[in-house]
Amino acid sequence: MTGYQVVTSAVREEAAKWDEFASEMSTVRGALSGLTLSPLAFFAADAITFAVFPLNLPTPPEELQRSYEDMRSYIEKLASEAETEFRDR
């Protein structure tokens, strides 16, 4: 076929961009994996308040921690999937 020219430089430039995106998502995913919290992070009372007043919390700290962990792990999963998607480009 005459009259056609394949330009591969643009494809190579595009590939480098997606590799950089994947690398950035890998960094984000790594940061997200370390953002876990214990149930104590969702409890704010000192020892005196705890001793004097009955503990009638509207939502137990363990439940708040589970909700946080569900959302954190979901976002981490999305970052991991984005990294995989960008690498496959």
UniProtKB/TrEMBL annotation:
<protein>
    <submittedName>
        <fullName>Uncharacterized protein</fullName>
    </submittedName>
</protein>
